[in-house]
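From the pipeline queue, job 12 of 40. The input is one protein chain; the requested action is below.

Action: predict structure.
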Amino acid sequence: MYAKINNDQIEQYPYTTTELRSDNPSTLFKFDPLTESDIRTAFNVVEVKETSKPDFNAQTHKCVEKTPELKNGEWTQVWETVAKTSDEKTKADSEQWVEIRNERNQKLQETDWQMVKSLELGENAAGLKTYRQKLRDIPQEQTNPFAITWPEL
């Protein structure tokens, strides 16, 4: 990741090779010019050190990337945790429920063959039936899509 600076202030972030070429149309650059420190120096571009996002509750908060900061001589990525609005929480819950249903459906599909085999052979499939019913009941029985307790087979 890169940023364009002016007087030790971020002018543009992120900054890409495409933007470097667009800002300097009469300059012929190598294939990936920003990987070379001499080119970055010549065009006031700095490398930004990636940092991990902080831990946060995805149900109530979101993590927003801020403008990089100069720390100990290197530009560093900065994150801020911000409370979600009511609308953002509702949207996030809906999106998470879609993911939960998709995962639930995948788990059901993975046991389809076992169910068919048990029925064909006349085997007792009570445990498998219970497991599959618990999977189907997840959206009705669990209220927090960010803390699902999955049944075990």
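Job complete. Residues 86-141 form one domain.
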